[in-house]
Amino acid sequence: MPDNQVAPHNLKHHFADLEQQKETSTFGMWVFLITEIMFFGGAFSAYLVYRLHYYNAWVAGSQTMEIKLGAINTVVLICSSLTMVLAVHFAKLGRRQWTALCLVLTMALGFAFLGIKAVEYHGHWLHHEVPGPNFHFEHVGNYDPHQVMIFFSLYFAMTGLHALHMLIGAGLLTWLLVANARGRFTTEYNTPVEMVGLYWHFVDLVWIYLFPLLYLISHSHNG
Amino acid sequence: METISHTSQAKTNYLNADYGLKSWLLTTDHKRIGILYLISISVFFVLGGFFAMLIRLELLTPAGDLVLADTYNKLFTMHGVVMIFLFLIPAIPSVFGNFLVPMMVGAKDLAFPKLNLLSWYLFMIGASFIMYSVITGGLDTGWTFYTPYSTTYSNSNVVAAALGVFINGFSSIFTGLNIIVTVHRMRAPGLTWQRLPLFIWAHYATSVIMVLGTPVLAVTIVLVALERLFHFGIFDARYGGDPLLFQHLFWFYSHPAVYIMILPAMGVISEVLACFSRKRIFGYSFVAMSSIAIAVLGFLVWAHHMYVAGISTYAAIIFSLLTFFVAIPSAVKVFNWTATLYKGSITFETPMLYVFAFIGLFTIGGLTGVFLAAVGIDLHVTDTYFVVAHFHYVMVGGTVTAFLAALHFWWPKMTGKMYPEGFSKLSALFVFAGFNLTFFPQFLLGYLGMPRRYHAYPPEFQVLNVLSTAGASILAVGFLMPMLYFAWSLQYGKDAGDNPWKAAGLEWMTSSPPPTFNFDETPTVTWEAYNYDEIDAPGGPAQDKPTHNKGVEVAG
Amino acid sequence: MSSHAHPTVKMFVAVWIALLVLTALTVFVATLDLGPFNPVVALTIATIKALLVLLFFMELRYSTALTKVGVTAALFFLLILVWLTLSDYLTRGWTSYINPFQ
Known about the structure:
The structure holds 3 protein chains of 3 kinds. Chain B is mainly α. In chain B, 65% of the residues lie in helices and 0% in strands.
């Protein structure tokens, strides 16, 4: 509709008003997250099929995971979700400095997660737990070592995809920081912060399931 | 009935609003993006057809004497990959969906125009990886990438092709996302769901499938690539991996994918059939709900591709039953289209010829699908030419036919030009005759036992194969002619006027070609879909109501 | 603006603390031997955490019905993928081939 009044400069031409634009953006991001649910869901399905058949191998593999690091990482991500939701909160209030601080904290926590993950991966590498020609697994238990390799394959695939998503999230946060510094976000227009927030929380959600499924399978874990 | 006569060229429209390569490659106009897709998929259709030609030439003789067996494996693989991923899946949604969805809902563009452009670039990048795979030796795993051949034993360019399909998948996902959000959030005032054209219902259902199914293919391809590159062992039986798990994950997408291919086609048929019968579609709600039903039920049937692969008998029975169910909504549509024809004022312009072809050929293809749903029959004809004939009847007799119907129907809208009707009718005849001669013998071949994906066969099958190849050459002519006369029409075609078919639908109420922002004023819709009784009434057509622009562009 | 009450910082912190507590709980429970209930408890706790994030951090509570339907649909079709795939795997041993011509 041609407007006789000046449209807000953040309003794209094909939307009638800011409200429609925001609702559309939000719904669009949720549809994207739906695709991500299906994406990770496929990997979870593969995990589930094998866990039912190769339970002992899954137990053996899980017992070599470092629960401490996994738990710390879970806490790190939960904290980053808090700082992210606060970033959105401050963006909606138009408080640029607090928004920037929270975004920086979120990013720092994200990198902390990736750093700890790198330490874990390195540990797996040293213990010959990376699938491929160098794979060599020894652990107490009644399992088929070949099947443990499948466990580790899925472990690396799923946590690797998750880490990739976190990297993308870090990129999005960088973009937000730059835009925020340029004063792009106001009390009226802060949709991008909220959208990146939704994405970030989703990545946290995936980890909330990955952690128990990969690290906490066995009972009576010995450290 | 009058149309306001004006020369399209004098007015600013989306084609002449801006010139230069950059204005096309950086466009966010959904109509231009639709044209970009049209050019791309046409090129890939020719490439896929080229592979088909080599296949049919090889199969002229029983001996494998044209190409080596390994080469033949690459030919049918590349034919499948190119035709499915680079033509059939994007053809109608990314060309006509992109062009028409915003106009049909009365919007100025899709919800996310830049994402739309990204979709096209992802399509081209994915296609480039697939082309790289073709050029550097080809892929020979079959378009189905079955493990462990694709992950361990094949020496062809699996990773490049897999990466290409992966990237392509995101093109599909983003298009689907855009359409869903647009239909929900950007309909014009008064345009309730029950007033939407069935084309929109069909594309909405298609988009739901794209959004829910494609990501599963994406993650499956990632696992295949990881396995091939790093020897992960997920599908490798030496480590306890199950090749059938790949098939479950693969077909969970790839079966709904065939509904991505056919649902938009059905949407096209509804539009064209209503126009050339001058009647609203009979049973509108049933047809709309059938689109949704096909999308939902389509996700429940995937293992009918795996009856003989080693799944349990009980699972086969469950999937067989579900597959019988999914045929029902398609049949509902065919019955409703037929009922629409009854007492309609039918004319036989080229788009309508393709509609009739579709109804007959899709019915044959769909019924043979029901035969295949029965485990007892499938045990005998799976992996034979019976299956090949079945899916070509639905994909070529169905989707490609509907694509041609759409191209002829909306060409005047997209370009402002008419194509030559005599030549178009002739090429429709070539397509119909050539298609049936190509693929009907294949039903017989399959029933008689000729396996698919073999470059040599027993001599008793030669006659039917020769008939099939002969048909293919006629079909090729039928496909080539439109390329020539459409190109000709751009320069020499008659000016179409805004609505040469006097069709219903918001897209026909703006100029041909449309202005960049589609409508000067967002229309307020107060009429039902397919209001041909109003359009054809002696009092004057609905189009002349003052709320609709006639292409005069107002700034902003 | 949306017509729901604005969530407060206090609410976010409360949810955060709940998530941390649940994380500690799930780690602790993993050290106990509950037999077949270990995964049940672990996944239940994970789901509670997920719901907290979804409903409060992602504000799914305040989202449109359409969004909620969409998320439900995704979970439904994921369930279909898992369930129907398992319908194959769990029934594979059920029949053995019987030759009618013997």
